[in-house]
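Notes from hallway chat w/ T.B., transcribed later so I don't forget. T.B. wanted the structure written out for a chain they're using in a teaching module, and asked if we could keep both sequence and structure tokens in one place. Agreed to drop them here.
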Amino acid sequence: MLKPLQQISVQFHQAGLDGCGADIHANRNRFGMGWRSGFTHGDCELYSRGSSAARKQRKEKSLVVPEQAPSDPLASPKRAGLAFFDEAMRLLRELGRTQGDSIQKAAELCAERIAGGGLVFLFGSGHSRMMCEEMTPRQGCYAGFVALVELALSNHASIIGANGLRAPLYLENYEGYAEQILKSFHLRPEDAFIVISTSGIRSVVVEMAAGARRRGIPVIAVVSKAHCEQAKPAHPSGKKLIDYADLIIDNQCPPGDCVVELEGLEWRTGPVSTITGAMIINMIRCATAESLLARGIRPVLLPSHQFVGNSSAAEQLEAFYEAYRKSLKHLYE
């Protein structure tokens, strides 16, 4: 799966996009991807450039961009894109190498629950909401997975004003909010939860996992272990998401999520949790389908509905709607 992307990377590199001459000038633009120490800001673990000594040490370890003429279309600021690409590819390889067994265990648990008439709920606030929708509704998805998306926690594209970013960030740390969401459904021990949070410290994700566990529901956590273990807990109990997880999948993200450091910027850029998170979700989906088939259960898939006039796709879409409707019937009884 990674091979075509790796070939693209090799082609880019061979074309000279991260090569060029051997003259290295230490004071030219640089980028690097070293992790750095953190401090707490608004209950979020954030990362600054640190002391002058630390900056000097990072510069010594950072990748040096060769000096080029200002008119060169491949001037150094454009190198950061390939740096991000390479680091994202490295993290995906690490994900497959280190988390494959955990992802397979998660898929087996999901298949077991779906085969028994249960549901697998996915919850994430803020940007993590995207991972819920990557599972369902999505081409190739099937009944059994439910995206538990709370708009008040994740509808913040306006940033400021109505439906802006301030309120969701406040609600993420509002105690008791997760329980109100859970009370809206008739949940059963036959269900399962996948809770997604790179930091794993916000009150809403901690209480969502705790609430699921109180109901006898197993919890799979998709989290950055590096960030979660280093960050101070935001919940007054001192608990984090990993404290309530039956199974932990490490999304491999560094503390702070971003991996590219550019000279002249105080904070790093290039977050990778979407890339590794989407990979985890799709690996779980594919492996769960495989496990269901091995149990003699054929999941009803959502087909691509982009084929205009394709009667087969239209019929399959209606079959998916009906299968999904039936899978949810116990939630409101």
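Follow-up for T.B.: The radius of gyration is 22 Å. Might be a good example for the class.
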